[in-house]
Amino acid sequence: MRQIVIVGSIAYDEIETPHGRSGKILGGAATYSSFAAAYFDVQVKIISVVGGDFKPDYIELFKQRNIDITGLEIKKDEKTFYWHGKYLENMNKRQSLITDLNVLEKFDPVVPESYKEPDILLLANLSPIVQLSVIRQLKRRPKLIVLDTMDFWIMTKLEELMEVFKNIDVLTINDQEAFLLSGQNTLRAAASKILEMGPQYVIIKKGEHGALLFTKEKIFFAPALPLYQVFDPTGAGDTFAGGLCGYLATTDNYSFENLKNGVIAGSVLASFTVEDFGTNKLQNIKTNEIISRIGEFIELVKFNFPKTNKIFNKKIQQ
Amino acid sequence: MRQIVIVGSIAYDEIETPHGRSGKILGGAATYSSFAAAYFDVQVKIISVVGGDFKPDYIELFKQRNIDITGLEIKKDEKTFYWHGKYLENMNKRQSLITDLNVLEKFDPVVPESYKEPDILLLANLSPIVQLSVIRQLKRRPKLIVLDTMDFWIMTKLEELMEVFKNIDVLTINDQEAFLLSGQNTLRAAASKILEMGPQYVIIKKGEHGALLFTKEKIFFAPALPLYQVFDPTGAGDTFAGGLCGYLATTDNYSFENLKNGVIAGSVLASFTVEDFGTNKLQNIKTNEIISRIGEFIELVKFNFPKTNKIFNKKIQQ
Q1: A172-217 per-position pLDDT tens digit
Q2: Contact check, Cβ <8 Å, B221/A301
Q3: Which residues does chain A have within 8 Å of residue B187's beta carbon, measured at their own beta carbons?
Q4: Which of A189, A311, B13, B189 makes an SS bond possible with A184, Cβ 3.0 to 4.6 Å?
């Protein structure tokens, strides 16, 4: 069975949306990413850290999914990373009300021996310094290194982030962050710039507008499923990255054509995450639901344009 | 040859973008829509009005495309509709600096006899009162009536607009206007509400994020081509509506499956319009360029997801 190592945060989140408040619930990039990846036929291993206040019930959730937690450090005398955020009316903007790094502040991961030869390394959102440390502790280069990052690291740790970029194959980033990172104002120009920074693939996540996969020569546009209601967008990007890696490790094919399918797999899983608070829905998807939704994505963009010139005005220059 | 009647504005536009200023150039919804539709093998007929200040050279542009201008009224003693607008940094927001309705203010169109039995009627952006008047002057109901409208009419002439809605088959509207019209905050919920107002098809235009075609049962997601540079978005929506109608009239097939192709055709032509100021690019597209770009749209969303359950974790409930 192929292996994915995921390094990222595990958190207590408290989320406010126009639909209500979540209370203090399980969150964090490594949580969403590993839960999503674990829907595939792969061995998922996480590297993260929590405090002594972290609920044993939550640890059970990882174990139930056969997620390897050898690399999960529990610092008894410290507190788990805590984030309290609020989404505004249309769910496109969010405010961070409280961000208590706590145990994450001095996180210096030690990669377990059994983790050192993964097929895929997913660097979920975390400090580039931690990400570099993990890359350097591996015994051999994974087949694929995927990086997810955010505006905070672009603004505060750009030099270290650029160093990470030299080591990765795939960057997933949202549209606003792509503009910030590249200084460009169209996604295509932004992707071109970012592809010069190191990664072979750049995936720009546009939330409800889908995602774009870029190489230097090619582009793929993955739709998002238009939903009646977006309940809570938290973790959608992390779910996407986890689903992408889970699919790719299982199929063990890193071509552009298969990356496209990975983007669809990630988008499909993310479309479930946003249907409920936190990981509520992501914890309880059935295989048949995933397969059915993949079918919806296929239908959503399918068209059959007639192959004929006869539809055009004959007087126009060829 | 099938016939499309287009009623809409013809304007002098003056456009400012971060790329520069256009000067006073040809614009207006009927202009973009008719130029786009005329790329197809159809007879396009326009209903509009201009002032005595309207350049004969511009009238030539319509004639060159074999666009019937019997329904173009020239009011010698009045001035052509004038719009001066400015796009902000990211091209997503625009400000109207000057809007002089001039000759449009009292526009009361008389539909020529030769226009009264079109295959498609395109009600391009204009007052709903004018749109209703045109519908009522026709001898028989067209196979398809397409309406494009904007926030201004939703806010100022909602009652008359609702009356137009009862007579149309297809509404094209942008995402912000769909939210405004429906009072909903997801596009899917907005489309559901709008479909109850009359039209059988609703097309929500999302600019650089593509377009969504909704019926009560089905959805189609058409991508937008990611461009290196959006030079001037003016007229993209009008071009879209014109391309849609041009394609549909030529193929004479108003099924959901063919509407999808119409949405692609409209998106393809709109992707040219935004490449230069005003109608500069839209005036000079070659058939081969259109065919080539249709190919790019097909490639952009094509993927081939494996039909197997073997990729999923066997421990998850089916």
Answers
A1: 999 999 999 999 989 999 999 999 999 999 999 999 999 999 999 9
A2: yes
A3: 208, 226
A4: A189
